[in-house]
Specification:
The complex is a heterodimer of chains A (about 300) and B (about 450). With about 300 residues, chain A is mainly alpha-helical. Helix content of chain A is about 75%, strand content about 0%. The longest helix of chain A is centred in the first third of the chain and has 34 residues. Chain B has two domains: about 150 residues, D-Maltodextrin-Binding Protein, domain 2; about 220 residues, D-Maltodextrin-Binding Protein, domain 2, CATH 3.40.190.10.
């Protein structure tokens, strides 16, 4: 019964060529359908991805009043007193969040994989549900959950001496608070993806391991994890790029708590502040370009280390 | 399944082109139609306003049937969240989308939106608003709006701070007279705390507006255009910090008045509260009072002084600002509307929650407040509502200037976490000054710290 989810998940790793050879789809029809699908995405990518990126790069090297600025906007951004703290915050957040993702998501996916199909389907649905909430809505849920005077978990919070929202949102707690929100919202989707990746592992391989005497833990660590490492890399690439751009959570929590979180807590917030509060789109664009370089750098590193694009 | 799919692609392209043509033609026809209709119709006035100003905007629309009003509800830039800066930055970039007049709850917008790089406020004292009208605003009330001799906004209400007190709770706690100095107020803290009551709060984003602005502490003092003094070591600052640190946190807790739980925690326990004039209407909404004290209403006392013989000085929390956009295509109409909102006697006395900055409207506003029954009867020897508000209106310290960044944002994000985890007001001063100095310098100010 795992066949259907395997088929959908395996599309990325199984060479499409194999299926064409099977003759399931006519060659010509398949190709044109592919173009249709890609063209829709390509149009959106160009309109909302490529063109804005190009514009940001153009702005980053332009003076406010026009003219080539060389590295001026970048040096201004580097010298801004909020620049390094913002990157420090995001680094702390990424360490907490990505560690939690790798460890907990893999543990949960492996546990789901060992359950019966019906039970695991129920839990997959349960885990995925928070991800169905829009980002802003999930922040509101957590504002409620984190306020010790309102939260159903107030005893737990008070156990840590957190009797007021002020204390929950102390600067040292913020990376953990935002990691918690991000994990709660995003983990379900990744658990489902990892579960699909685990289903992609040939049954014979696991049978063989079992015959060789591997227990469930050994099979998980020595067989399953190495075989899904590209999916873990994929998750880390997207998480790193998304995490460095953290914006909604600190912005909304800051506004809802009357400013307890600085409005320049993350680099993306700093860029937003500089663009709209200081009316300096050029320096803001420089920060965006720095984030782009970071995201690309992180992705390149992971792609290189995990041989991501190599097909088995 | 004939062919390779190319004919289908061509058909799709033709179909897409046809759809694009139809959509484009419809959009163009809608645009042309509306332009033609506008040209023949009455003048248009776009107003950005906040929720509390809705009754005033409705009244303006009713009183001016010959003006087509486009009323856009915004958040008034509350808590310095930068909504207006975002909107203006975008409008300035694309060259359209500005309002004709706009209302801001945020004093720092006076400095931010009227000065470069925004330049989105029209100069009012060059003929748009007559000097006879400008001169009737309360003494010094337009100083927040004035840069280099040019007035860029009109104050809606003053929001100057008074000492709110609850006569019933005072009697219950054994406090016999309304304090007139900060020292007397601090001393009453022990009596209040003994009965589980509070004499104010700290850790609100407006702390600095109450305690430091109210004691002439130079944390935001513009000495010349582009020059700012931020001196937390002035004795006016350190003296107030020491006084606040000497009060038990049972009497002066770290709490935020607009938090969801303030009412249930402190609603019936506020014996004193040094705060803005508009707060009088807020206290009764903060939850039920004790059974022994069915009356939640407060009375207003004079703003607290540092010494009984010293000058009367106070600060202000908010107090709205009316601006005319420098980009308005109908500045005369915009200025007339601006003047109506800031000065009209009915709008200001009956529809505005705060004490009018425009002097001639004060008496009618006080009369309306007295008639509302929202305030407690003053105790013997204490001032009437009119006396307290009038004294506060004329005591606002002019040494606290509007700056392009939001002081309350700094206080909330830098100082409140420190106070919440047990830090002192003395430490808070340094934290605030350091953050404010950095922001002021990044906004191009020359900052003096002595």
């Amino acid at each position: 019964m795992k066949v259907s989810s395997t088929a959908s998940i395996s599309a990325g790793t199984t060479p499409a060529r194999n299926r064409r050879v099977d003759g399931a789809l006519p060659v010509g029809g398949s190709r044109s359908a592919g173009y249709y699908f890609v063209s829709l995405y390509a149009v959106l990518l160009i309109l909302f991805g490529v063109i804005p990126t190009g514009y940001a790069i153009f702005l980053a090297f332009t003076k406010t009043g026009g003219g080539f600025a060389a590295a001026l906007n970048f040096t201004r951004a580097f010298n801004d007193f909020r620049f390094l703290p913002a990157f420090q915050h995001i680094a702390e957040f990424l360490v907490v969040w990505m560690s939690a993702e790798v460890i907990l998501i893999l543990i949960l996916a492996l546990m789901l994989h060992s359950l019966s199909t019906r039970t695991s389907a129920f839990f997959r649905f349960l885990f995925y549900m928070p991800g169905a909430l829009a980002g802003a809505a999930s922040v509101l849920v957590w504002l409620f959950m984190l306020d010790p005077t309102l939260s159903p978990g107030h005893l737990f919070l008070k156990g840590f001496g957190l009797s007021q929202l002020n204390l929950v949102l102390l600067p040292g707690h913020l990376p953990f608070v935002f990691a918690l929100i991000a994990f709660w919202t995003g983990a379900g989707g990744w658990i489902v993806v990892m579960y699909g990746a685990l289903n992609n592992i040939p049954e014979e391989l696991l049978e063989a391991a079992k015959l060789d005497g591997a227990n469930a833990l050994q099979s998980a660590i020595r067989i399953k994890l190495p075989l899904i490492k590209k999916w873990v890399a994929y998750m880390l690439i997207l998480s790193f790029a998304g995490g460095t751009q953290l914006f909604v959570e600190p912005q909304l929590v800051g506004q809802a708590s009357a400013g307890l979180v600085s409005n320049t807590w993350t680099p993306n917030q700093l860029a937003y502040y500089i663009a709209f509060n200081n009316d300096n789109f050029n320096e803001a664009a420089a920060i965006s370009v720095i984030l782009l370089v970071l995201g690309l750098g992180g992705a390149t590193f992971l792609v290189w280390r995990t041989k991501f694009f190599e097909i088995n | 399944m004939r062919g390779t799919g190319r004919p289908r692609s061509l058909r799709s392209v033709r179909l897409a082109a046809a759809v694009a043509f139809v959509v484009g033609a419809s959009v163009m026809s809608v645009g042309l139609g509306s332009t033609a209709a506008n040209a023949a119709s009455k003048p248009t006035l776009t107003i950005w306003y906040d929720t509390a100003r809705k009754p005033m905007v409705d009244a303006y629309i009713k009183a001016n049937p010959n003006v087509k009003v486009v009323a856009v509800l915004k958040d008034g830039d509350s808590n310095g969240d930068g909504t207006y800066q975002s909107a203006f930055a975008l409008a300035n970039r694309v060259g359209h989308g500005w309002p004709d007049i706009y209302f801001s709850e945020q004093n720092n917008d006076a400095a931010s939106l009227s000065q470069p790089p925004f330049n989105d406020a029209a100069v009012l004292n060059n003929g748009l608003i007559s000097s006879s009208v400008l001169n009737k605003f309360a003494k010094g009330s337009l100083s927040l709006c004035t840069f280099g001799g040019k007035v860029y906004c009109l104050r809606n209400d003053l929001a100057s701070n008074v000492l709110w007190y609850n006569p019933a709770l005072m009697a219950q706690d054994g406090i016999t007279s309304v304090p007139t100095t900060w020292q007397e107020w601090a001393a009453d803290g022990a009596l209040a705390a003994a009965h589980g009551d509070i004499i104010g709060t700290q850790g609100d984003s407006w702390d600095a507006d109450v305690y430091y602005w109210g004691n002439e502490c130079p944390l935001s003092q513009q000495t010349a255009l582009g020059s700012l003094t931020i001196n937390p070591n002035s004795s006016n600052c350190t003296g107030m910090a020491a006084l606040l640190d000497g009060i038990s946190r049972d009497a002066l807790p770290v709490a935020y008045m607009f938090s969801s739980t303030f009412g249930s925690q402190y609603g019936g326990k506020i014996v004193f509260y040094p705060g803005a004039g508009w707060m009088g209407g807020v206290f009764p909404g903060l939850g039920s009072c004790k059974t022994s004290n069915p009356d939640c209403t407060m009375a207003a006392g004079y703003p607290l002084k540092w010494t009984s013989t010293g000058p009367a000085v106070t600060g202000a929390i908010g107090g709205g600002l009316w601006f005319a956009s420098s980009h308005s295509k109908n500045l005369k109409l915009a200025a007339a509307a601006l003047q109506w909102f800031a000065t009209d006697s009915v709008a200001q006395s009956k529809l505005s929650p705060g004490y009018p900055a425009y002097g001639p409207d004060d008496a009618a506003w006080i009369a309306a407040q007295d008639a509302s029954g929202s305030y407690a009867k003053p105790v013997a020897g204490a001032p009437t509502l009119a006396q307290a508000f009038s004294a506060a209106a004329n005591s606002i310290w002019a040494g606290w200037s509007a700056v392009p960044y939001a002081n309350d944002q700094i206080w909330a994000s830098s100082v409140v976490p420190s106070l919440s985890s047990g830090g002192t007001q003395a430490a808070a001063l340094g934290i605030f000054a350091s953050a404010a100095t950095n922001l002021a310098r990044s906004d191009g100010y020359q900052v003096k710290t002595k």
